[in-house]
Prior knowledge:
metalloaminopeptidase activity; elongated; manganese ion binding; Leucine Aminopeptidase, subunit E, domain 1; Aminopeptidase; 2 domains; alpha/beta
Amino acid sequence: MILLNSKKEFELTLKAIDKKNIKNTLISTDEGSVTLISEDKAFYLTVDTAQCLYKGISKGLSDFFKNQKHDINIDVESFLQIDSKKGDAIFDAIVETAFFENHDLVSYKEKPQPKKDINLICKSDRSNRFEEEKIKMEFVNFTRDLQDTPPNLATSVMIADKISTKAKDIKGLKLTVYNKKQIEDLGMGLLLSVNAGSYVEPRVVVLEYVGDPKQEKIGLVGKGITFDSGGYSLKPSNFMEGMKFDMSGAAIMLSTVMALAKAQAKTNVMAIGLFTDNRIGGHATLVESVIKSMNGKTVEITNTDAEGRLVLADGITYAVRESKVDKIIDAATLTGAIVIALGKWQTGMFSTDDAWYQAVADAAKKAHEPVWRQPLIPEHLKAIQCSPVADLVNSEPGRNAGSSTAAAFLNSFAEGKPFVHLDIAGTADNGKRGTGVMIKTLFELLNKK
C-alpha cells in the first residue's frame, strides 16, 4: 500500500542525496546506488543532477523497491530539495514508481510474495497531485493485470467482462458491449474475418465520458488481439511468445477513459476496444480472401498475420461514424518493424496532422514516455493500393517501411479526421510483464481542469 503522510511511520526511511553533496565516505557516489547507514536508520539514494532527474530517480527507486523486504518511509522533501524548480517531476517520479513497483503482480504461484507498505512523508501540500497520480496509476496497474493474464484465461469475453465490471463502478461512464451478432449488424467485416477461426466470440467494448460537452470529442481506438497465432500465415514458434500482450492497445485506451472519468476531467472522450484472438481453424480466413470493412472499403488479405490493422480499421470507422469524433488516436502492438527501428525505448508515432501530432508529443514529454515520429507519406498509401481485386491490401508485399504502410492503411479509414497512430509493439511489455505504456501520456493530454 502507498500512503501519504500516514501517522504510522516505519522504522526505516529512504532519503535522497545529491551526488555533489556527499561528504560521508560510506555513501556510494554511483548514481542510483542505495547505501544503508544503520546508525541513521536510513537508506540514501544517490542522485546525479547532471542527468535526467525523473529517469534517474525512477530507475533508482525501481531497483530499490524490487529488493525491499521492509515497510519503509520515503522522505519526499529530501528528493524535492535536490532541485526545487523540478518539484512536480520529482514528485511524480516518486509516486509513479512507488505505485508501479509496489503493485501485486498477476501470479499463479503457490506462494506469491506480497509487497510491503510505503509511506511518503511530505511536508508541502501535494495531496491533490497525489490523488491524481493515484488514480492514473490505478489504471496503469489495471491494464498491466489484463496484459499479464495468461491467454487461456484472458479471452475476449473474459476481458470484456473485467473491463465492464471495473467501469460500472465509475460515475459518468457510458458502457456498451457488443456481442458477435451485434458486431455483424454493425458490419464490422474486418474484425469478424480475424475472429473467423476462433471458437471464442469477439467482443467490442465502448466507453464514453463527457466531462465537458463543449470540448472537441476525442476517439481512442485500441487493438485487442488476445492471442495472435498469425492465422494461416502462421508465426514461427519463437515469435508466438509474448502474443498474449497483443491486446495491450485496447486495454490501454479503455483504461485511459476510466481514469479520466474517475478524475472527473473536463474532457469529451470515447474509447473502443476490439477483442478477438487470431487462430487457425476450419473457418479461418484464407490468404487472398477479400473482405468488406465497416466503412465499405474492400481489403484483400495478403497476410493473415497482419490482423491488428483490420480490427483497428473497423474501430476507427465506428469512432468516426457512430461516435462522431473530431480527432482520433489509436494504440496497437502493430508491427515488428517498429521494434527493429526503435527497440524498447520509444513508441513510434505516425500522423499527417502536425498540430495533432505535436499535442500528443508534448503530452508524452510531460508524462516522461519517450516517442519518436515516423514518416507517413502518400507513397505509403499507394503501396497498399496494389490489389487487382480490392481497394487495399492489408500488408504491402515485401518488407519496405512496414510500420509506415500499416499506419497509412489505418489513416485511410480516418476519413480526413486528425489522426495519430501509436505503434507500441516495442514498449507495451518488457518481455515478461505488461507496462501499461501511454496511459500517462493520454491522461496528460486529456485531463483538462
